[in-house]
Structure formats: structure tokens, C-alpha cells
UniProtKB/TrEMBL annotation:
<dbReference type="InterPro" id="IPR000486">
    <property type="entry name" value="Xdiol_ring_cleave_dOase_1/2"/>
</dbReference>
<keyword id="KW-0408">Iron</keyword>
<keyword id="KW-0058">Aromatic hydrocarbons catabolism</keyword>
<dbReference type="InterPro" id="IPR029068">
    <property type="entry name" value="Glyas_Bleomycin-R_OHBP_Dase"/>
</dbReference>
<keyword id="KW-0223">Dioxygenase</keyword>
<feature type="domain" description="VOC">
    <location>
        <begin position="5"/>
        <end position="122"/>
    </location>
</feature>
<keyword id="KW-0560">Oxidoreductase</keyword>
<dbReference type="Pfam" id="PF00903">
    <property type="entry name" value="Glyoxalase"/>
</dbReference>
<dbReference type="InterPro" id="IPR037523">
    <property type="entry name" value="VOC_core"/>
</dbReference>
<protein>
    <submittedName>
        <fullName>VOC family protein</fullName>
    </submittedName>
</protein>
<keyword id="KW-0479">Metal-binding</keyword>
<feature type="domain" description="VOC">
    <location>
        <begin position="142"/>
        <end position="255"/>
    </location>
</feature>
<comment type="similarity">
    <text>Belongs to the extradiol ring-cleavage dioxygenase family.</text>
</comment>
<dbReference type="InterPro" id="IPR004360">
    <property type="entry name" value="Glyas_Fos-R_dOase_dom"/>
</dbReference>
């Protein structure tokens, strides 16, 4: 009950065209431009629903909002009450915002990192299958998870675990935590950093062959591969990472495990089974205390 899954992410981006090129050429993902009020927004079509990533033209690159799907209006009221009791000011989304998300109802608040967190009821299914180029295979299947970093880690953990009722899956002491709201290993991970930032967003693929084909297209297109192909120790996903036009990572992955109610949270120790070599310094190699 309550929050069911990660629904969408909105980004402020300085170069929409570069993002569109990245999605179309590397991931074979269609982009739909829509006009809301006087502004045009580019929507990335990761599955059959309206969108999972929204690209808002901006003078700076930043995370605009994180949207979580809530089971029902009754659950939205219950989660809202929990947030209000915890001291958060919860506001109603505007009609334009709710329409853009494909939701029937939407509320939002600001988290300890300063990010807008949205709670939406309903998802608009606008096609029978994802829009893909004619030569595309199964490829992208949806939005997997995101990783946020910032200075108020303890407060943000309390928000997600104690107020929003996420469950801790595993962690690396002393500053990296993986949290779930459904059977997927994690929908969000939280890390400690000096300033708020988004480390990466993961784009789910159907098979290792789909990941491999994306890897080939990235190399052929000169897309910077920021973390090499590898398998994570904790969720067992096979993936590689690319540096997107806004400067953070996109993880291109498949095969993450699911966990049940009997799962015991633990420190998983080593980051990877194999691979995942970083082109730049790995901020999570030794999480800051």
C-alpha cells in the first residue's frame, strides 16, 4: 500500500537537442514534444505510458522533480497526513502539472536535499507499445531507479523509511543506502555528499543483448562511457553508464533481482562482482562518514 513505484523524473536541461539525440541514437527511444501553457517539454517514451523522463528547457541543469506513483486517492490522503505530521508542507499540483504527468491527482513537497518530490495517483497509458525505431529490438522497458546524494542523509533516510514507508534493502557503511517500495531491489539509493546532486538514473532494458547493443551504439556514436560494463554485487544487475548532456550518469542495465519480505538488510561490502571501471574518481568507493 502507499507508494507503489517510481513513476517519472523531471529534469531541467540546458541542451534538449543533445538529450534527444542521445535517446534516439543510443537507446532507440522516441521523444515527444508537448506544450504546457507557454512552455515546450520533451517527453522520453520508455514504455507504453505517457512518459518516464521529462526534459524542461532551462538555463541550468538540475533535477526538477521525482514522481512516485501512489495506489489510490485514499492512500494519497494517508501518506499526506504522515508527511504533514512529520512537518512537511504538502501542496496540490496545478491542473497543468497533473495533466502533464498523466495523473488524476498529484501533490508535492520539498525534501531535505531541496528537491521537489511528487505523489501521483494514476498513470496515462497512451500507446499499446513503446515507440521504437523500425530496427529496434525489445530494448528499453522502463525507468528503473535513481541515486541522490546530499549533506542531510540521515534526515532523508528518515523521510523515506519512517514517513514514506520504504524498506531498506542493503547498504555500504557509512554513507550509501538502497531502498525499495516494491519487489525490485531498489527504486532509490541515497548517499552522503557535500552538496545535493543526482548521481544517476537507471534505464531498464529487457536482456543483456539489449544492453550490449546499446553499448555498441554508444561507442559508435562517441557517447562518453563513464563506467564500463559490469555486474553489481548487491542487485546483480549487468550495466554500463554513460555521461549525459547534463553531466550526471545514465545507467543502462538489466537483470536486477527482486527481494521478498524475508530479506535481511546487510552491508554488501564489495561494489561489483566484475567490471564497472570508472573513467573518473568513484565518489562511492569509500562513502564519506
Amino acid at each position: 500500500m502507499g507508494i507503489r513505484k517510481l513513476g517519472y523524473v523531471g529534469l531541467n536541461v540546458t541542451d534538449v537537442d543533445a538529450w534527444v539525440t542521445l535517446f534516439e541514437r543510443t537507446l532507440s527511444v522516441g521523444i515527444t514534444p508537448v506544450t504546457i501553457g507557454t512552455k515546450e517539454v520533451a517527453l522520453a517514451e520508455l514504455d507504453e505510458f505517457k512518459y518516464r523522463l521529462a526534459l524542461h528547457p532551462s538555463a541550468q541543469d538540475s533535477l526538477r522533480e521525482v514522481g512516485w506513483i501512489v495506489d489510490s486517492p485514499r492512500e494519497l490522503d494517508r501518506v499526506t497526513e504522515r508527511l504533514t505530521d512529520a512537518g512537511f508542507a504538502v501542496r496540490e499540483g496545478s491542473a497543468d502539472e497533473t495533466e502533464l504527468r498523466g495523473a488524476t491527482q498529484m501533490r508535492w513537497f520539498t525534501d531535505h536535499f531541496g528537491y521537489r518530490v511528487e505523489l501521483a495517483v494514476g498513470e496515462a497509458k497512451v500507446r499499446t507499445s513503446p515507440a521504437r525505431s523500425a530496427d529496434a529490438r525489445t530494448g528499453v522497458t522502463g525507468l528503473g531507479h535513481l541515486v541522490l546524494a546530499g549533506p542531510k542523509l540521515d534526515e532523508l533516510r528518515e523521510l523515506y523509511e519512517c514517513v514514506l514507508e520504504f524498506r531498506l534493502t542493503d547498504y555500504r557503511a557509512p554513507g550509501l543506502y538502497f531502498l525499495r517500495c516494491n519487489a525490485s531491489h531498489h527504486s532509490i539509493a541515497l548517499a552522503r555528499a557535500d552538496t545535493p546532486s543526482i548521481h544517476h538514473i537507471e534505464i531498464e532494458h529487457d536482456t543483456i543483448d539489449d544492453v550490449g547493443r546499446a553499448h555498441d551504439r554508444a561507442q559508435a556514436g562517441g557517447v562518453p562511457i563513464s563506467i564500463s560494463l559490469g555486474r553489481h554485487m548487491n542487485d546483480k544487475a549487468i550495466s554500463f553508464y554513460i555521461r549525459n548532456p547534463s553531466g550526471f550518469h545514465l545507467e543502462i542495465g538489466c537483470g536486477g533481482i527482486e527481494v521478498g519480505d524475508g530479506w535481511i538488510p546487510h552491508d554488501f561490502g564489495t561494489s561489483d562482482v566484475w567490471g564497472h571501471r570508472h573513467a573518473d574518481a568513484n565518489p562511492f568507493a569509500s562513502p564519506a562518514s
